[in-house]
Amino acid sequence: MNNEKIIELIKPNFYSRFNNMHKKGSVVIYLKPLIEIYKLCNEDALPEIITYVGSVVTDALELSRKIETEDPTIISFLDLKGIYMSDLTTKTKKLIITIIQHLQNTYVDVMNKTYIYNPPVFIRIGYKIFYNFIDPDTRKKIDIVYKNKQVVSINELCDDNNKI
Fold first, then answer.
1. Which letter does DSSP use for residue 134 in this model?
2. Res. 67 pLDDT band, cuts 50 70 90
3. Rounded to an integer, what distance in angstroms lies between the CA atom of residue 4 and that of residue 130?
4. Could you report the per-residue pLDDT of 35-46, keeping only the tens digit for each?
5. I need a labelling partner for 60 at 20 to 30 A (CA). Which of 23, 112, 114, 155 fits?
């Protein structure tokens, strides 16, 4: 599969849009389809995928720049529906880590809010383990949305009194 075909398959699952509720640019990510597409790729496709991811984030920032007077920021929507531990192979972990590293190095402090939809059980466990290592400002920017549309902040998620 050539790189252009891969990007065409990825586009419906990773895109930017204007977010009317927040009045800024946003990035929408459906992780399961991205992982499945990447499993079909060879290693040569990774730079092309990273370039595309960067263009999506840049587009979202441009949408935000039209409204915000200060430094533009974006809202991210990450859907984890259908993600299982078995999906996190060495190859897919490399994809996820490479994307995260690229975004952290290229787009410093642009995340305004991230909503994580349909979190698998291991996300809750992982957050509880790594909670104290996450910067408090970053914690405020992450919310988890459960099936019943209940929005839970990462602080509430890791609060032992909160049973969700």
1. S
2. confident
3. 37
4. 999 988 888 899
5. 155
